[in-house]
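seq as requested:
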Amino acid sequence: MKRKSMGIYEPILEKEIFMKIGYACLTKGVYHTRFKTITLKNASEENLLQIIEHNLDTLDRIIDYNIKMNIKMFRLSSDIIPFGSSPVNEILWEEVFKDKFETISEKINNNNIRISMHPGQYTVLNSPRENVVERAIEDLEYHNRFLYALGRDRTSKIIIHIGGVYGDKKSAIERFEENYKLLSEGIKDRLIIENDDKSYNIGDVLGIATRKDIPVVYDNLHNALNPFDESKDDKYFINLVNKTWQSYDGLQKIHYSQSANGKKSGSHSQTIDLKVFKDFLKDIPHVDIMLEVKDKNLSAIKANNLINPKRDIKALEEEWARYKYNILEHDPNVYREVRNLLKDKA
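struct tokens:
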């Protein structure tokens, strides 16, 4: 049975659907794009208002940067609103900063940028502890509230993992499915579930998705580390996962990352290896791709240049020239790695 749209916004129709490649939360080497945080003891209304204003201005600058660099996909940080899901913050921030939200929303709309959010590891819907589940639902409500304040339709997704196993995977899955019923329709419209690298493989997640009618986001590195069927490749699972997506969910999106050499299992690479990524793209259908790479926007620019028919490296070289000394000052190793990568024009 198909899900019916219960959200306030219907999807924005596009005349032309094309692959979008984006990055998550933070920019590397871009001035004035650092979000601020605050401790609980300092979370007065005055301080919260100042930090929210700063963070929304920062988000505005990041969106401007993405527009300039033609990056059409971006995952928002969950921390833009400090204590967003906590009673510590009772500010009606979507009303106080309505004009700012509308400004950012207009830029996103006009430039056809796809937005998503990914709550952190403590948002666990299948916990056996009732208070943890309650906090998880509150956190999901915050994320939905933020996306609603930005005027996003249901193609702007909220991604979560299934959670813990707690010694009994079958019961943990049943608990997830029961607690899913507690979610508002607004959250259900946005929610997508992801396979992880330790507990819930893509087979587990597809089983839940089929029973509860939830779209799945496939993570290639997680599947490599926690495989369901090693005889099947990425293309097979991406096509299988595609069946969980409906037209009102937008184009199917996946997470893509490469393993860091010499690091612990599951660590993301410092930057994207374009040759490996190019081979990956040959075998998969048309999807939107969220890169999970440590150099963030730099890899996104590089990957977008790869899929550009003109294959123009000029944009990446200009970006590197603009910020290379700032990167050198903060991390010489990253500087050397990016400089070496730029020598490879392929």
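DSSP finds 13 helices and eight strands in the chain.
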